[in-house]
Design brief:
homodimer, alpha+beta, 60s Ribosomal Protein L30, Chain: A, 2 domains, 13 strands
Chain lengths: ~325, ~325
């Protein structure tokens, strides 16, 4: 069962959204109008055994990741955090002390990013073998009138990534996927410098190949990435860096030259936006199925993007 | 492990909430300020085997209940629905067809109550034995400047309930807990008629005894309920009606006489708000532990409210 197919079905049936819904499902966050104000909102979740290994991961980092995954969605929209809510289901033998540790970590992480935990629900599973699940809803406001979505990439734009990619999950279950910094501050700085020229953005959770494809599909363009330019973490080969996911760096497109020294974190131009080759723009329904619209060039050959990145089925 | 104790711990540590948080955790919904607009937000969840029995419940009703439980929180605050988001974890053998049925039911229910589904996340469990979990976040706006919370009950107020209570869960797992109407429309009508006189309100999810106690504790008052006045569903005795929960009717307090014929649904005066007998107002931390502050009178004896209602540990 694929998340995308299922969600696409829901989205398709949801075509007649109320007028106050400004951005419906399908981007990193949805947006609604509220008496003149605008609100960004998203939900994400972690499931023990899928996104975190409770045997090797301190609960402090489990709680941190639950929150930062959703915060990364705020970064993807260049949003400003407002507040967060959690819904947690615990195995009956989880224990109050461990539950408190988990909740404290979530509360503290949320507060650290100015996204205070303002509500929650706790349920208890019937069986000790049933896994901890933790869904986190985040609220944010856009940085300005222009809202940065996935669908604004334009032909001629440069394609950029922040930071370095790959190696987020170490063999022992630990790694950067537990300790990453959601790029909220950097996204807001990008917005401040680029304004409406910040054409499209996404956070890299599924892997560069797949996430760049989300931009390409949503924007109706094609993206060429020069594999040799991908900034990899030490010891990581580009194919791995482009496919593993859970980097939680930003991938964005913008025209012209970027200002230098926007912030301390490195920003690397890795490719360019081109006309779509396909005879017509693909429907959204096909977007999640592969990485059509993205090609990696390594100097010798072309590699279709759909051979990289993973199906986000978890 | 008790939800209240754990959440209270989080709330206590959360004392220094950002200024834009107008209502923090502890009520049916939290509220934040957004550039002048105000937003109510809450999350609730259902877990298969705990809140619904998948063996006896059509998936259409599972999806309906997932949404309506959260919509009932909007009713409790007299809010106007804005939008909803879901995070679902499915067993791997759940199947696309059943998942589609579930999501269609959630989408349709949300749309029926003007609370369109605008975002979601789907995760897949590792084991077929791991249960479906479904968390639903709802957004709403207050009906007016006065926001109806649990903590506004005043000495001399009448205590009222909408509809009829008890018998929500039939022995075969079906019943009103699956098919109830969240009282959004009625709550807005109450607000329209009573305005700032709608002092306190809650939806009856844990049982009248416990939920009236939430009002009493939060408001620092005591509530006396005349058990003989409790409107029970056919064949239900008052103790059962006051303790079972999952009625999703409204319990509220207001001074003076209520207007008649506010809406078709019956509204029954069942009690009155009195001074708190305890030497000092209990701390929030004690609120969840029992039903202190509520007494049921049946003409012959007094029954403390904490002998009714159930610990919401699920």
């Amino acid at each position: 069962m694929r998340e995308f197919e299922l969600l696409e079905h829901v989205y398709a049936a949801n075509a007649e959204l109320a007028r106050h819904v400004r951005i419906g499902p399908g981007d990193d966050m949805a947006m609604v109008d509220l008496d003149g104000g605008r609100l960004l909102v998203a939900v994400d979740q972690i499931v023990a055994g899928k996104h975190v290994d409770l045997d090797t991961t301190p609960l402090e980092l489990v709680g941190r990741k639950a929150i930062t995954r959703s915060l990364s969605d705020i970064a993807a929209m260049a949003g400003k955090p407002v507040a967060s809510l959690v819904a947690v289901t615990l195995p009956p033998d989880f224990g109050s002390k461990r539950a408190t540790t988990l909740f404290d970590a979530m509360r503290k992480t949320a507060a650290d990013y100015d996204c205070p935990l303002i509500g929650g629900d706790i349920a208890i599973h019937n069986e000790n073998s049933h896994p901890l699940t933790c869904s986190v809803t985040v609220l944010a406001t856009p940085s300005g009138e222009h809202v940065v979505t996935r669908d604004g990439a334009k032909v001629g734009d440069g394609v950029y990534v922040t930071g370095r990619l790959g190696g987020s999950l170490l063999p022992d279950g630990t790694g950067h996927h537990l300790t990453f910094e959601p790029r909220i501050k950097e996204a807001i700085e990008l917005y401040r410098h680029l304004g409406t020229n910040l054409h499209a953005m996404i956070d890299i959770s599924d892997g560069l190949g797949r996430d760049a494809a989300h931009i390409a599909e949503a924007s109706g363009v094609s993206i060429q990435i020069d594999a040799r330019l991908i900034p990899c973490r030490p010891g990581i080969e580009w194919r791995q860096a482009a496919s593993e996911g859970e980097d939680y760096e930003l991938c964005f497109t913008a025209p012209g030259e970027l200002p230098t020294n926007m912030f301390e974190l490195e920003v690397t131009r890795i490719g360019e936006v081109f006309d779509r080759k396909e005879p017509e723009k693909s429907s959204r329904g096909e977007a999640g199925g592969g990485s059509r619209g993205v090609v990696f060039l390594d100097g010798a050959s072309e590699l279709p993007g759909d051979e990289l990145g993973w199906q986000h089925e978890s």
